[in-house]
Design goal:
- This protein has 230 residues and is of the alpha/beta class.
- Helix content is 47%, strand content 11%.
- It is built from six helices and seven strands; from the N terminus they run H-E-E-E-H-E-H-E-H-E-H-E-H.
- The chain has helices spanning 19-55, 80-94, 115-125, 142-155, 170-179, 198-218, and strands at residues 65-68, 73-74, 77-78, 101-104, 133-136, 160-164, 183-186.
- The chain has a five-stranded parallel beta sheet.
- Helix 1 (19-55) crosses helix 6.
């Protein structure tokens, strides 16, 4: 074998990347990680801003129905969170926003009432005619409830809905309703534990930001327990 064709790398010695090569790889890896974190930060921050923006909207245009998202009830008595939503729905009904209020929500094991039934009974006891309240007695989370309401509305030829929930809940519920083929807008309650303090407001925005991102990525619900339901 000629000296020109002989290997210049001694036999038995592995090829070791130079320090400059390793440094370059680490720099690129660091840039990728930093870029990913920046994108995630912008996405989270942007979603939080949208949650806050939509929470401030009171859209009281005329619709086919007003939807009250369920919350805890105790032997047929709505919790303070649920009552605030129901009072808002009753106020919207009184303004002529819609001729029908829909309550929604199932019940837990051992409960005597569904959330929907407790809401219907509360509204009827507070001046809303019983035949103007539709109780959709199913759903253990926001997505299931909205899917059930959409099915009930489509079956009745109804297509537009004003959603009465907590302010921070508005964007996610509106997004889900529109995904179910409904024309949906929001007019949330301005009373109740969800809006009592700055702390509860910040907690609500953070919670709904995470839940909305989860829904957009997976199309599953991610409901977290609301602030104290007294």
């Amino acid at each position: 074998m000629s000296s020109a064709s002989a290997s210049t790398v001694p036999l038995g010695r592995p090829l070791v990347p130079s320090r400059s090569t390793v440094g370059g790889v680490l720099r690129w890896a660091g840039r990728i990680v930093a870029g990913t974190l920046l994108i995630a930060l912008v996405l989270v921050a942007g979603t939080a801003v949208r949650v806050w923006q939509v929470a401030r909207i009171d859209d009281e245009r005329h619709a086919d129905a007003i939807l009250v998202l369920g919350a805890a009830q105790y032997n047929g008595v709505p919790s303070s969170v649920f009552q605030a939503r129901l009072d808002q729905a009753a106020a919207l009904y009184g303004k002529g926003v819609a001729p029908l209020i829909i309550t929604v929500g199932g019940k837990r094991v051992g409960d005597a009432y569904t959330e929907a039934a407790a809401g219907r009974n509360y509204l009827s006891a507070n001046g809303v005619p019983a035949d103007h309240v539709l109780a959709v007695e199913t759903g253990s989370n926001t997505l299931q409830s909205i899917e059930a309401v959409a099915t009930a509305m489509h079956a009745r030829g109804l297509s537009s809905v004003v959603m009465a929930s907590d302010p921070w809940h508005s964007l996610r519920t509106r997004t889900m309703a529109r995904d179910q083929g409904l024309q949906a807008w929001t007019a949330p309650t301005r009373t109740g534990p969800a809006v009592y303090t700055r702390e509860s407001q910040a907690h609500g925005i953070a919670r709904e930001t995470g839940a909305l991102l989860w829904y957009r990525i997976t199309h599953y619900s991610a409901d977290f327990k609301y602030t104290a339901e007294q």
